[in-house]
Structures are given as structure tokens and as C-alpha cells.
Amino acid sequence: MKHRILIILATALAVLCLSSTAMAHKVNIFAYSENGVVYAEGYFPDGRPVVEGDIEVLDSKGQKLLSGKTNKEGFFSFQTLVNDDLTIVINASMGHRAQFILRKNELE
Amino acid sequence: MNKNILGSITGIMAIAFCTSSTEAHFGTIIPSDDIISQHDDTTLKLEAKFIHPLELHYMEMDKPKQFGVQINGKKQDLLNSLQAAKGKSPDQEKDYTFWQAEYKVKRPGDYTFYMEPVPYWEAAEDLFIVHYTKVCINSLGLEQGWDEPVGLETEIVPLTRPYGLWTGNLFTGQILLDGKPAPNAEVEIEYLNESKQNISIITPPASPYVTQVVKADINGVFSYAMPKAGWWGFSALSEASWKLEHEGREKGVEIGAVYWVMTRDMR
Q1: In this complex, do B143 and A32 lie within 8 Å of one another by their Cβ atoms?
Q2: CA distance readout (Å), B232 to A18, B26, B53, B224, B258
Q3: φ, ψ dihedrals at A57, nearest 5°
Q4: To the nearest whole percent, how much of chain B has pLDDT over 70?
Q5: Which residue in chain A is spatially nearest to B108 when comparing CA positions?
């Protein structure tokens, strides 16, 4: 009986810890295009930038077009190379990952 | 089906009869979505009305004096995007004017839409009514700005993040009057019976169920737990320090700070 309570408590604690980091560290990415340049931004819900997040840009077939890192403000930009739907993936530390799909009709 | 409709209409008529003396007016701004995710339509449709939310009754609404959106502390005037439309409850005979707008959300962040209507003359209460109304939507996970005041004469500033709310959640807000907390103000709360999330029209068992009433504390802070999925309106009423003239006589002005939030069932 005692054991069971301990296990429940431990599980509850683990869930608590896991979920609080997941929320506080939820990575988001947004991208838009202007005058042939795609601007991507990595951010946390409270507005803090994702600093030095790994960026990968994929075409509609999943082929990697380019990669890089976000700067101190969480920004990353590149010249639009192809007229295709782009998937922009951000990988922050601890395996937090997010992606944004920029449709080719949104490329300007 | 016919029976259902008949039942609803009877219910609505029953509400109309039982509660005409207690009905509360609410300015409303209801957006087509409260959270914009990556694959959602980024064009919001907004409806601005002056209604009795639970009883479904519309009132005639003139074009608002102010209609806009605050993003990241900056305001954008949207008055020219408003288009007049007509609507009514099933038991109302004639149509009443309300206002519609479309707004394209372009970036992540919180978008607080706000409205200042022109004063509405309410003969039954011998006063004018001005409801400063707000609603906040979130775009793409950047949760920044919902807790900032817009700077209206009176307004509710949410202390609970006003989107992503479950049914049963407690909504807490602070009432500001001229930018300062309004101590002990009365807040009227109503469920929007025409919410598209509403699966069955609510018929209140007695008139006190139409409008819930809570009082703010000394810091103008109030809370209410919302028992059903759909839109909930919070309206904090004060008396304006100014008067308006009606047929040659000075009349009082009721100013309301109205805020709308949406809940979803947890399932």
C-alpha cells in the first residue's frame, strides 16, 4: 500500500516536472516572405527568442535546401531559391522542434 | 425536428416573458476563432452587436465610434472595415442592425479587438448606455499582449489568459475606470446562447439565471467559473462622470467594460 502511494506520488511529480518544462520551452516558428527573402523567427510563448536554434529548410519533397542557426533575436533569413512550398524546421536544445510551412503562393 | 424547434421557440418566448425586467444589455465582439493555428484560415470574421446574450435579443446598433485592434501595444483603426448586417432572435419580429468585419491575421501574437459604440438611448432606464467591448485572440503561439490595457474610459483587463479556456475554468479580470482599478464594481455575466459551440439553447429556470452577478473586490478584481462551452460576456458597469442630453434634458450615462471569452469542453 505504502509502495503504491509512493509510486503515484513519484509519477505525479515526474508529470509535473515534464509538463512544466514542455510549456515553458514550447518552441514556435513563424515565417513570411518579402521581396525575395524569407524571414523566419523562433520564439517561446512569452516572446523570448529561440537563440541559436538549428534551422533546416526543406522543399515539398522533403529535400534539404539549406540550414543555419537563428541569431540572438531568434531571426533567420534566406533568399528564396525555389518556387515551391517550403517547410522551415527549427530544432532548439533538448530536442524541442517546431515547423512552419510557407506555401509557394505566399512567397513574395 | 419540428418539435425541437417548437420547444426552442416556446423556451425562448418563456424567457422573453419571464425576464423582460431583468435583461442585461451587452456590447459584443465575437470572432470566428479564438486561436489561430498554423493550418487555420487566417482571415477572422468578427461580429459586433448590441444584444441580450442569453435571451438572444438584438437591439439596433449604430456604426461604432471606435473599432480597432491592439497588437504589441500598437493600435490599428478598423472602423472602415465594418459592414452593416441584419439579424434577430427567433421570437423578434423585425431585423436589427449589427456590424461585421473581416481581418487578416498576419503575424504571431495576441490581437485585442476593441469597440466603443455610440451612446444608446434606453428609454426604459432613462439613461444612455456605452459599452466599451473587447475580445482577444491568439495567433501562432506567441502569447504576448492579452494582459495589456487598451486605454479605454473603462475596460476589463484579464488576469486569466483569455483564450484556450476549458469549460469550468475560472475567469479573473480587473476592472479599470479611467485607468484605475474600480473597487467593488458590479459585474454582470451572460452566456451567449447563439454561440456556435452551443448544442442546446439554454432556457433559464428563473430570471436570476439569465444574468449572473459578481462584485469586484477593493482592487476591482472579480472571478467567475464558466459552466458551459461557448462564449461568455463579462460586463462591469459604472456611471459616467459626464452627462448627455436627450430631448433637452441632461441624462446619465451607464458605461460598461465588456470582455468576451470562449470555453471548450474538455474531451
Answers
A1: no
A2: 32, 11, 9, 10, 10
A3: -115, 125
A4: 91
A5: A30
Which is nearest to B193 in space by CA: B1, B11, B2, B6? B11
Grid cell listed for A76:
533567420
Q: Which domains does chain A have, with CATH numbers?
A: 27-106 (2.60.40.10)
- B177, B193 in Cβ contact below 8 A? no
Share of chain B above pLDDT 90, in %: 88
Q: Which of A28, A33, A34, A102 to mutate to test the interface with B (most CBs of B within 10 A)?
A: A28
Which residues on chain B are in Cβ contact (under 8 Å) with A100?
A: 38
**Strand residue runs (E) in chain A:** 28-34, 37-43, 54-58, 64-69, 75-79, 86-91, 97-102
Residue B260 phi/psi, 5° resolution? -115, 135
pLDDT exceeds 80 at position B87: yes
Residue type, B254: E
Strand partners, B83: B100
pLDDT of residue A98: 94
For residue B7, the SS3 value is: helix
**DSSP codes, B104-132:** E--SSEEEEEEEEPPPEEEGGGTEEEEEE
Chain B residue nearest residue A100, CA to CA: B38
B4-13 residue pLDDT tens: 554 454 444 4
Cβ of A45 within 8 Å of Cβ of B106? The answer is no
A28/B140 CB distance under 8 A? yes
With an 8 Å Cβ cutoff, are B143 and A45 in contact? yes
Joined together, the cell numbers standing for residue B202 give 439554454
Residues B156-192: tens digit of each pLDDT: 999 999 999 999 999 999 999 999 999 999 999 999 9
- Chain B residues whose CB is inside 8 A of the A102 CB are none
Cross-strand pairs, A57: A66, A88
User: Is A100 close to B141, i.e. CB distance below 8 A?
Assistant: no
A8 Cα to chain B: minimum distance (Å) = 23
